[in-house]
Write a sequence for this structure.
């Protein structure tokens, strides 16, 4: 189990402010009568403005970690602090507020609301956020300015995922959490989605954590954290980051 | 390819190949138990109402038929003034008549020990020492009076029960002012008094009105009817027609003061029983249809949803080689089990409730015993109707499941297609927030489903309107009748037409504030083939204690010439003001007159024909005579006055209007409240069944959306709104629709319930609408409260993980 801070610059100069710090994070699920240890004591830090890729095979606990960071799930043991506030001590109301204002989520299956257009799927977030961009701005950022009034059924998978990204960042979140955002897409479409994520990280400086089992995608990150069996087993900084267009698998 | 070994096994319930499918069936059913139970309940309610009403109808009709047949219930009835016993021989010879009995009927007043209020009644004569040939008595307890015993009587069971009277108890009866003490020898039932009702009463008052039977000679002596009779009852020969017999009787009895013979359908007790059977017949059709219709709708939605959530399983089964038929059968069994559970519960509950309802009827309708039978065909009909409803409900969904190509079914369904419609073009659209847009788009995406939901809820709202409007309407009817029409306190009838000066005698009695005389003549009104037998009432102009009102409750004055008629009667006889009507006078010298109809009046209870009293006296070629009087009295002296009036030799009957009104209101409150309670229960179970199932299905379909919204930072309340808002929106749309439907039902019911006995006005008050809305809204809130915990405990991670 390797833990702690890693030296090196991660895109936003020397002011390395920690956004997330986890300490001995443990999660045990009860699946029927079997206890599943999804996390077995994870200690790690995410810094402001960096793009981190969490790599690992399925079932390694990376989604569980992301869900706990995003306030969707609670840890069995250990602590998570978000910008100095302890998330593990937060109540339901506080977690809802946290998700509403601070976190943007992107999922493998897009999770569009089928009855709302692209613009409305974004507006559903901007309507409740504190200082959002307009849905139009957010959709322009992901290159979908011309598809704003399409319903999800009228968009391709890659387009739906880009709407999901626009929806996630329209609130100007501090962190963007992406759970296998390209898991359901072919490699060509995936590139356009990854480009959108990288552009958001670069242009808005949004701290981004991206989960994948695809080693190649790790090459676009500032830092790669590798997980196996509920533990962090390796971290490394990319000396040279690649742009998504250079990636292929 | 058709080698035996490669053929998959056919459907066998216990066969190896299908065992696991059956297990899946039971587990699916277990997982859906709450919803399945809600649907089975609605089916059970439908089957139960069907069984209850059909069986009650069948049992009552059978009971009535047996009682009438075994106890020789008369087909023709006639009252007259007085005819000598020697006339009996000629009655017997009338063509068409089978058995005939001449009788003495005497109105009496009674004193029941320990009961303070005045009691009215009637004594009917029994042939000395034997059962009559017509209208025989069923002896519940004791015996008929012994021949030659003057003091022995038999009493009607309801009267004995009301006062706790038993064999050997004594009563004081006052016949024509003479007090007699009688002893109860028997407690009996008569086909003539299945529904025991005092003259001019609309609801029974078992405490204040009773029927007694006495030996003929004893009664004739006491009533001054020695060697004579004043009433005839007869049965008809098989195949004989009633009208010619009535005409022949009228002709024969006219010289003896006959007031018009009538058939069974005009006999009070029989009419009430038949009307009640008619109402049960109507309910046996309408209520089960409503319930089974709603159940079919719920089944349709539920099975459709199960099949949608099991697309992949269907695909896998088909990939394994199950045929479409087997898969259809699988889901048909699932539906069938729910129907079966509902039907069995409905049959058991229905049999129990029919028996209970039959016993309630026995409280009002006195038969020797209830011939309860639950017929096989009724059960078969109930199961068939429920099964049919389920089949039509589930057919489409099951067919869809079986038709799905396996590969297609295994792919997650594409996002549902949505299009911009009229909604988006409305200028209001941009003011609507996204969650509300989700609701509106979901509803407009499945308009048929929304329409069915709204209809189901509206139907329950309509039932609430129908159930409750009668309460206000009947109250209004009684208010009009007793405030504007029958304004007197006491209604007196004299034994014979009496000179006007009798009024003076009444006027001077203590406690009498106002007196008004009236003349009443039995008549038969004829127009073409339609006729109606009633009393022609001669009133003072302007009418004082007996109001004449029009449709808007404004007073109507009596015309100098011609008659006024209740609008219902004029419509029945197809007469309009200005027409002439044939009036056949059934008292004294029989004559036919043609009288113009001057106008119509609108009293809600009873029907009649009216003219100015002196004009009627002129028509009858008599002096200023009256048939009775209406009195306005002091409340305190009513009891004493009642005793005094009874001692007047001319007085034939005394009606206390206040008592009649009170009893009527009590009766209505009792029955209407029970009816309302039942309707409320039925309506709420429908409303709840529809709304709750809707909510559960919507929850299952929207779990992902709800989870997404929660992840995006919506609070539970905000996310739950897309579900709760939908329920509320459907409810809000359904409420006015329920009002409209209910108003229509109430209108139809008002018309259906308009009979010559009374006409319930078509009045739906704001209170009724409020009640309906509150009932539906309450069911919605209850459903929301039951679904809310599921929204609260929604597992976001789990919901999002599951690929669609």
């Amino acid at each position: 189990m390797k833990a702690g801070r890693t030296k090196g610059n991660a895109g936003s100069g020397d002011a390395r402010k920690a956004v997330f710090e986890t300490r001995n994070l443990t999660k045990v699920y009860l699946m029927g009568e079997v206890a599943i240890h999804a996390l077995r004591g994870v200690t790690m830090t995410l810094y402001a403005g960096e793009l981190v890729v969490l790599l690992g095979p399925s079932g390694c606990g990376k989604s569980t970690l992301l869900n706990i960071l995003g306030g969707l799930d609670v840890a069995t043991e250990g602590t998570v602090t978000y910008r100095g506030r302890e998330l593990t001590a937060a109540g339901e109301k506080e977690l809802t507020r946290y998700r509403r204002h601070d976190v943007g989520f992107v999922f493998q299956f897009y999770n569009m609301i089928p009855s709302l257009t692209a613009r409305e799927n974004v507006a559903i977030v901007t309507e409740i956020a504190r200082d959002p961009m307009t849905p139009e701005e957010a959709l322009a950022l992901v290159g979908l300015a011309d598809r704003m009034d399409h319903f999800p059924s009228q968009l391709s998978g890659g387009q739906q995922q880009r709407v999901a990204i626009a929806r996630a960042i329209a609130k100007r979140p501090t962190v963007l959490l992406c759970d296998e955002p390209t898991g359901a897409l072919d490699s060509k479409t995936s590139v356009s989605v990854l480009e959108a994520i990288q552009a958001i990280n670069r242009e808005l400086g949004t701290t981004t954590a991206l989960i994948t089992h695809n080693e190649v995608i790790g090459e676009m990150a500032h830092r790669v954290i590798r997980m196996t069996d509920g533990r962090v087993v390796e971290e490394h900084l990319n000396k040279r980051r690649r742009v998504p267009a250079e990636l292929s698998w | 390819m058709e080698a035996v070994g490669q053929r998959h096994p056919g459907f066998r319930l216990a066969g190896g190949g299908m065992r696991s499918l059956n297990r899946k069936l039971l587990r699916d059913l277990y997982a859906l138990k709450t919803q399945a139970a809600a649907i089975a309940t609605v089916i059970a309610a439908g089957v139960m109402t069907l069984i209850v009403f059909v069986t009650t109808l069948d049992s009552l009709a059978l009971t009535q038929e047996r009682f009438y047949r075994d106890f020789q219930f008369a087909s023709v009835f006639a009252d007259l003034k007085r005819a000598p016993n020697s006339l009996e021989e000629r009655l017997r010879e009338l063509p068409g008549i089978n058995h005939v009995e001449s009788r003495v009927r005497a109105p009496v007043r009674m004193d029941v020990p320990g009961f303070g209020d005045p009691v009215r009644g009637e004594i009917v004569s029994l042939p000395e020492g034997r059962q009559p040939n017509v209208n025989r008595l069923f002896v519940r307890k004791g015996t008929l009076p012994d021949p030659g015993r003057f003091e022995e009587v038999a009493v009607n069971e309801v009267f004995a029960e009301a006062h706790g009277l038993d064999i050997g108890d004594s009563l004081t009866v006052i016949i024509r002012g003479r007090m007699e003490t009688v002893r109860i020898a028997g407690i009996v039932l008569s086909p003539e008094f299945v529904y025991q009702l005092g003259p001019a009463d609309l609801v029974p008052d078992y405490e204040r009105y009773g029927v007694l039977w006495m030996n003929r000679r004893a009664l004739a002596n006491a009533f001054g009817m020695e060697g004579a009779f004043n009433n005839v009852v007869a049965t008809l020969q098989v195949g004989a027609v009633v009208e010619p017999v009535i005409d022949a009787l009228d002709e024969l009895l006219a010289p003896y003061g006959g007031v018009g013979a009538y058939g069974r359908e005009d006999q009070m007790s029989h009419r009430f029983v038949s009307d009640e059977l008619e109402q049960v017949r109507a309910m046996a059709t309408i209520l089960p249809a409503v319930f089974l219709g709603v159940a079919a709708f719920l089944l349709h939605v539920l099975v459709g949803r199960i099949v949608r959530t099991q697309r992949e399983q269907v695909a896998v089964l088909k990939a394994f080689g199950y045929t479409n038929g087997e898969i259809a059968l699988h889901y048909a069994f699932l539906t069938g089990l729910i129907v079966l559970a509902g039907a069995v519960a409905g049959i058991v509950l229905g049999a129990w409730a029919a028996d209970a309802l039959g016993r309630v009827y026995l409280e009002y309708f006195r038969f020797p015993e209830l011939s309860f039978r639950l017929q096989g065909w009724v059960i078969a009909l109930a199961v068939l109707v429920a099964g049919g409803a389920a089949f039509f409900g589930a057919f489409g969904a099951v067919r869809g499941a079986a038709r799905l190509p396996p590969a297609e079914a295994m792919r997650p369904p594409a996002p549902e297609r949505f299009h911009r419609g009229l909604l988006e073009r409305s200028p209001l659209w941009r003011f609507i927030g996204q969650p509300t847009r989700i609701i509106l788009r979901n509803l407009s995406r499945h308009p048929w489903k929304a329409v069915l939901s709204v209809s189901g809820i509206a139907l329950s709202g309509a039932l609430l309107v129908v159930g409750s409007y009668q309460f206000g309407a009947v109250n209004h009817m009684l208010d009009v009748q007793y405030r504007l029409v029958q304004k007197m306190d006491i209604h007196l009838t004299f034994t014979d037409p009496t000179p006007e000066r009798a009024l003076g005698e009444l006027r001077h009695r203590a406690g009498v504030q106002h007196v008004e005389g009236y003349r009443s003549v039995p008549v038969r009104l004829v127009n073409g083939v339609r006729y109606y037998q009633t009393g022609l009432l001669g009133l003072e102009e302007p009418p004082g204690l007996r109001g004449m009102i029009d449709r808007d409750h404004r007073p109507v004055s009596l015309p100098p010439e011609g008659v006024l008629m209740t609008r219902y009667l004029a419509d029945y006889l197809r007469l309009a003001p200005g027409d002439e009507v044939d009036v056949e006078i059934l008292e004294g010298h029989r004559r036919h007159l043609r009288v113009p109809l001057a106008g119509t009046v609108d009293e809600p209870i009873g029907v009649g024909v009216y003219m100015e009293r002196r004009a009627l006296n002129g028509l009858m070629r008599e002096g200023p005579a009256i048939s009775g009087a209406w009195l306005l009295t002091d409340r305190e002296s009513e009891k004493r006055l009642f005793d005094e009036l009874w001692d007047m030799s001319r007085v034939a009957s005394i009606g206390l209007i206040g008592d009649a009104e009170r009893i009527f209101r009590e009766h209505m409150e009792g029955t209407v409240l029970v009816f309302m309670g039942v309707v409320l229960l039925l309506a709420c179970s429908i409303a709840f069944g529809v709304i709750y199932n809707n909510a559960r299905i919507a929850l299952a379909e929207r779990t992902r959306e709800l989870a997404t919204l929660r992840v995006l930072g919506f609070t539970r309340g905000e996310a739950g709104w897309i579900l709760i808002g939908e329920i509320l929106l459907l409810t809000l749309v359904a409420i006015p629709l329920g009002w409209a439907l209910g108003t229509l039902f109430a209108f139809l019911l008002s018309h259906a319930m308009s009979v010559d006995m009374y006409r319930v006005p078509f009045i739906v008050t704001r209170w009724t609408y409020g009640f309906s809305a509150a009932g539906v809204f309450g069911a919605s809130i209850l459903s929301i409260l039951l679904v809310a915990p599921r929204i609260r405990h929604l597992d976001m991670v789990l919901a999002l993980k599951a690929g669609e």
About this structure: The CA atoms of residues 139 and 166 of chain A lie 5 Å apart. The helical segments of chain A are 62-69, 92-101, 118-126, 135-141, 157-169, 187-204. The longest helix of chain A spans residues 187-204. The two ends of chain A are 29 Å apart (CA to CA).
